[in-house]
Design goal:
Blueprint (H helix, E strand, L loop, with lengths): L10 H14 L6 H5 L6 H6 L33 E4 L1 H4 L4 E6 L10 H14 L9 E5 L3 H12 L3 E7 L4 H10 L6 E4 L6 H11 L5 E3 L6 H25 L4 E8 L7 H10 L2 E7 L4 H4 L26 E5 L1 H11 L2 H9 L4 H6 L5 H17 L5 E7 L9 H10 L5 H13 L6 E3 L2 H18 L4 H6 L3 H8 L1 H16 L6
Parallel strand pairs: 2-10, 3-4, 3-6, 4-5, 7-8, 7-10, 8-9
Antiparallel strand pairs: 1-2, 9-11
Helix pairs in contact: 1-21, 5-6, 5-9, 6-7, 9-10, 12-15, 12-16, 12-17, 13-17
Length: about 500
C-alpha cells in the first residue's frame, strides 16, 4: 500500500535529511500539535511574529492548521467559520462552514495535505531532500501546497497540473518554483486526472523524483482525520455551547483527492454523523459512472481515489458548475449581496462570502441538497469546508461572464442566479447510499488502481473493511513519535 508505515526504510537517508534540517534550523510540528495548536511551544508561536503568513519561511510550518487568525497573524481559539442559516440556505439546519483560506502560503487547506504526505516519508528515510525532487500531481492547490512545503524544507518541488486551471494558480507557482521546468502542465482540466498520472509515470522513471500522489497517498487521509477532524469538532462544539441540543448530522466535502473526507471518519466515530461525498454534475462518476468536463476547480475526478473510504460514506451528491459559476459572480456582485441582505442574511454572513471559491460554493450547495434529501431539522448542523477563497478566482470572473452570460452580468443576472441555484437547490442528483450503492462506487476504483496503476488486487480489496482504516488512523501517533525522534536527531531548536 502507498503509505510509508512506521518503520525506517533507509537509515542513511534519514540521517542525511535530519542533518539538512538541523543545518537549516527547521523543527517539524507533530500532527497532534497541528490538531490542537495550543500544544505548540511558546517559542514557535513567538517566532511567527517575524514570519509573514505568505512568506517562504519554515516558521510557517507552525501555521499549517485551521486556527490561524488572518487579521492579527496569530492564533484563534476556534477555527474561523461562518454559520449559514435558513435566510441564506432555505433549509432548516445550520450549515457551518470552516474557512480554508486561513492556511499559510497558499490560502488553501491543501498545504496540510502536502505536509501530511511529505513528513512521514522524511521521518522514515523514504525521501532524501538533499538529492531528490518532490513531485506533486494535482488539479491545483495541492501542487501549490507541495511546492510551498518543499521550498521551505529546502528541497526541490515539482508541480504537475492541468493547463486549464485558474491563472492565479500558475502565477503563484511561477513565483515559488526554483526552475520554470518544475511546473509540468498536462492537457485538460479538472477531469483529466489520468493525464496527470501519465506525466508522473514518465517523471518517475528518474529515481531522483519521488511522486507524492495525493489520490493514493494514504497519509493524505490520515492528515485530515488527525488534524481537520478535531478542528471541525471544535468549531461544532463552540456552536453547540451557544445553542445546547444541536446535533452534528453530517459532514459534506467534495471528493477531490478524497483526503478531506477523512475528517468525516473522525466525526462519524464521535457523533455518528453522515459523510457526504460531492462531485460535479458534469462529471458524475460516483452517481452515474459518468465522465465529462467542468469548472469546479478543486475537484479532480473521473475516477475514485485510492484514499477514498467509500464504504464509510452515506450519500453522494452532484452539483453543476453552472451553479457554482453563477453564484460566484452573484456573491461578488453588490446587487446579489443586497438581495441576500433583503432576505434577512446577516452582514457577517455576507462579508464571509469572500472566503468562498468555486469548490467552496459547491460544498455549500451540496450541504443544502443533502439537508433537503435527508429531511434535516432546525436542531441539526451540517459541517463543511470552504477549501479556498474567492481571491483565487478573480481571473475567472471575466471568463465566466463572457462564456456564460455573453459578457454582461448585472443585478438582474445576480438575482436570477441566486433564485435558480441557491433558493432552487433541490434533491436532484442526491443518492442516499446503501451497501449496494457503496459497493458500486468502490468497484469503480478497480479500473484505475488495479488495471491502470498496478495496485495488487488484495491491497485494493483490503480497503473495503473498517479494520484497514482503523489501522491507518492509528498511524498519526506513530508518526508523531518519529517526528519527535527526527527533531532530536536534527538538533534543530525552535527559535535557535
Amino acid at each position: 500500500m502507498t503509505h510509508p508505515g512506521a518503520d525506517v526504510v533507509d537509515r542513511a537517508t534519514l540521517e542525511r535529511a535530519a542533518r539538512r534540517f538541523g543545518e537549516a534550523g527547521i523543527v517539524l510540528p507533530t500532527f497532534a500539535q497541528l490538531a490542537e495548536p495550543q500544544q505548540i511551544p511558546d517559542a514557535a508561536l513567538e517566532g511567527l511574529s517575524g514570519a509573514g503568513r505568505d512568506d517562504a519561511d519554515a516558521r510557517n510550518l507552525w501555521r499549517v492548521h485551521w486556527y490561524n487568525d488572518t487579521l492579527g497573524g496569530g492564533q484563534r481559539e476556534v477555527p474561523e467559520h461562518v454559520v449559514l442559516g435558513p435566510a441564506f440556505t432555505g433549509v432548516p439546519p445550520q450549515i457551518l462552514v470552516v474557512f480554508g483560506d486561513t492556511f499559510p502560503m497558499i490560502g488553501a487547506h491543501k498545504v496540510l495535505a502536502a505536509y501530511a504526505c511529505l513528513v512521514p516519508r522524511l521521518v522514515t528515510g523514504g525521501f532524501d531532500p538533499t538529492a531528490q525532487r518532490a513531485v506533486w500531481p494535482s488539479t491545483g492547490n495541492y501542487a501549490r501546497g507541495g511546492v510551498a512545503i518543499s521550498r521551505i524544507m529546502g528541497c526541490r518541488g515539482v508541480a504537475v497540473l492541468p493547463e486549464n486551471m485558474s491563472r492565479e494558480r500558475f502565477d503563484w507557482l511561477r513565483r515559488w518554483v526554483s526552475d520554470p521546468a518544475d511546473i509540468v502542465v498536462t492537457p485538460g482540466s479538472e477531469s483529466n486526472v489520468k493525464e496527470i498520472y501519465d506525466a508522473c509515470a514518465e517523471i518517475a522513471a528518474d529515481d531522483r523524483n519521488v511522486i507524492f500522489n495525493q489520490f493514493s497517498e494514504f497519509s493524505n487521509h490520515v492528515g485530515h482525520y488527525a488534524v481537520t477532524g478535531p478542528a471541525l469538532e471544535h468549531a461544532f462544539e463552540s456552536r453547540s455551547a451557544v445553542e445546547p441540543g444541536l446535533r452534528l448530522a453530517a459532514f459534506v466535502a467534495a471528493s477531490g483527492s478524497s483526503g478531506t473526507l477523512g475528517a468525516g471518519d473522525y466525526l462519524k466515530e464521535r457523533y455518528g454523523s453522515a459523510t457526504v461525498a460531492v462531485e460535479a454534475l458534469e462529471c458524475p462518476t460516483m452517481l452515474y459512472n459518468g465522465f465529462g468536463e467542468h469548472n469546479i476547480q478543486g475537484i479532480g475526478d473521473k475516477h475514485i481515489p485510492l484514499v477514498h473510504n467509500v464504504m464509510n460514506n452515506d450519500a453522494a451528491v452532484a452539483v453543476s458548475d453552472a451553479a457554482t459559476d453563477g453564484l460566484f459572480l452573484a456573491f461578488g456582485h453588490e446587487d446579489g449581496r443586497r438581495l441576500l441582505a433583503g432576505r434577512g442574511v446577516p452582514a457577517d454572513v455576507l462579508a464571509s462570502l469572500e472566503h468562498f471559491g468555486l469548490s467552496s460554493i459547491c460544498n455549500v450547495l451540496a450541504a443544502v441538497k443533502y439537508a433537503r434529501a435527508a429531511g434535516l431539522g432546525s436542531d441539526d448542523v451540517v459541517v463543511t469546508v470552504a477549501t479556498d477563497g474567492a481571491a483565487m478566482y478573480d481571473s475567472e470572473r471575466p471568463r465566466i461572464g463572457a462564456g456564460r452570460f455573453g459578457g454582461s452580468f448585472d443585478g438582474a443576472g445576480a438575482a436570477a442566479q441566486i433564485e435558480e441555484h441557491l433558493a432552487g437547490a433541490d434533491t436532484s442528483h442526491v443518492e442516499l447510499l446503501d451497501d449496494v450503492g457503496r459497493s458500486r462506487i468502490f468497484n469503480l476504483g478497480y479500473f484505475t488502481w488495479v488495471e491502470q496503476q498496478g495496485v495488487p488486487l488484495e491491497d485494493f480489496e483490503a480497503r473495503r473493511g473498517a479494520a484497514f482504516w482503523d489501522r491507518l488512523h492509528a498511524m498519526a501517533p506513530a508518526w508523531d513519535a518519529m517526528i519527535d525522534d527526527f527533531n532530536a536527531r536534527s538538533g534543530a531548536v525552535i527559535g535557535g
